[in-house]
């Protein structure tokens, strides 16, 4: 969730642009070093950086297109388009980075032994790449730490619940990049010390596994957001309490929320109003409660409140079928 007066989209854009610029420069350096040294691990790292560069381009597309205003065809806006392009970015990491790394690794391990040339060039490039990647990683970490602090969560909790895939993607990519550079260094060093290219190939395979894990994690995150994940549980509980405490409402029968995009929440509530209220009273209460929800939680963009009787057996059965016994504790939100 964002706070008023801040621009999470702007910081996400800075994070993505910085990461993309760094990755493009590093990809060129690694490719040159890989050719000069004959190191499969360095070539795998070059593919890794190319994949990361493509990822940043897709993330920039996600940031731009998801900010389009709502229209007649898409009345809830284009917020979820951010998750689609971010999902493609995760696929890109696997297709462009992991698969090439596996190819280089298995080719080196099971192919003809290769002579190592100019290892010093590889070490220099890896050192430069580590410094540049650290700059990008620190920017991503700064954003993650600030936003997790605002939400009073640990970094792990923040990354699990975040509704903006851009900082998480860059943070995971840059973390994987730093680990990959260490693996490439070890492969290069062991190849030089032993004269066996086996270690270089094993480093490439490990880099491929690392990228596959990152791609799977990011892909799963965006899949859940794309198909409609509920809002932050803390926000859901707050919404339920606000509705429950309203004098016009006797019971919150069902409460559903969905993320329409980054910092965009849809709220659908079925509530049992006091039977003594007139139609006009119910209308005014709905308008007031929608305003109070938006004031307390600025991310709430759409509110639908439906009057229903809490004793309706079909509705109760539907809620219990959807959420089980947890519905009695969280009002249909797990």
UniProtKB/TrEMBL annotation:
Q: Where in the cell is it found?
A: Membrane
Q: Which Gene3D superfamilies match?
A: Cation efflux protein transmembrane domain, Cation efflux protein, cytoplasmic domain
Q: Coiled-coil annotation: which residues? A: none
Sorted UniProt keywords: Membrane, Transmembrane, Transmembrane helix, Transport
Q: What GO biological process, any one, is recorded here?
A: zinc ion transport
Q: Does the keyword Membrane apply?
A: yes
Source species, domain of life: Bacteria
User: Is the keyword Methyltransferase in the record?
Assistant: no
Task: Specify the protein name.
Answer: Cation diffusion facilitator family transporter
Organism, per UniProt? Amycolatopsis sacchari
Upper lineage ranks? Bacteria, Bacillati, Actinomycetota, Actinomycetes, Pseudonocardiales
């Amino acid at each position: 969730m964002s706070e008023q007066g801040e621009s999470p989209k702007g910081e996400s854009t800075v994070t993505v642009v910085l990461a993309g610029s760094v990755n493009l420069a590093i990809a060129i350096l690694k490719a040159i070093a890989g050719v000069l040294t004959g190191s499969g691990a360095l070539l795998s790292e070059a593919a890794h950086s190319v994949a990361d560069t493509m990822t940043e381009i897709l993330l920039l597309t996600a940031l731009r297109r998801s900010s389009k205003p709502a229209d007649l065809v898409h009345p809830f806006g284009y917020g979820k388009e951010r998750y689609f392009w971010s999902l493609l970015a995760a696929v890109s990491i696997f297709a462009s980075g992991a698969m090439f790394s596996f190819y280089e690794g298995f080719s080196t391990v099971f192919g003809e032994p290769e002579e190592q040339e100019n290892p010093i060039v590889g070490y220099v490039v890896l050192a430069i790449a580590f410094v540049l990647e650290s700059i990008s990683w620190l920017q991503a970490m700064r954003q993650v730490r600030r936003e997790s602090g605002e939400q009073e969560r640990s970094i792990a909790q923040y990354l699990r619940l975040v509704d903006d895939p851009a900082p998480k993607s860059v943070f995971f990519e840059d973390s994987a990049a730093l680990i990959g550079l260490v693996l490439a260094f070890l492969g290069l060093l062991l190849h030089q010390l032993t004269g066996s290219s086996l270690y270089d190939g094993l480093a490439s395979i490990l880099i491929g596994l690392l990228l596959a894990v990152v791609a799977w994690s990011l892909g799963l995150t965006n899949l859940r957001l794309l198909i409609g994940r509920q809002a932050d549980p803390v926000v859901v509980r707050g919404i339920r309490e606000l509705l429950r405490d309203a004098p016009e409402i006797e019971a919150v029968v069902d409460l559903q929320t969905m993320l329409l995009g980054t910092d965009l929440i849809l709220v659908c509530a079925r509530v049992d109003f006091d039977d003594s209220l007139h139609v006009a009273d119910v209308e005014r209460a709905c308008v007031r409660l929608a305003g109070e929800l938006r004031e307390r939680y600025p991310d709430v963009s759409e509110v639908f409140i439906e009057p229903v009787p809490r004793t309706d057996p079909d509705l109760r059965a539907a809620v219990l079928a959807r959420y089980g016994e947890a519905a009695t504790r969280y009002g249909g939100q797990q």
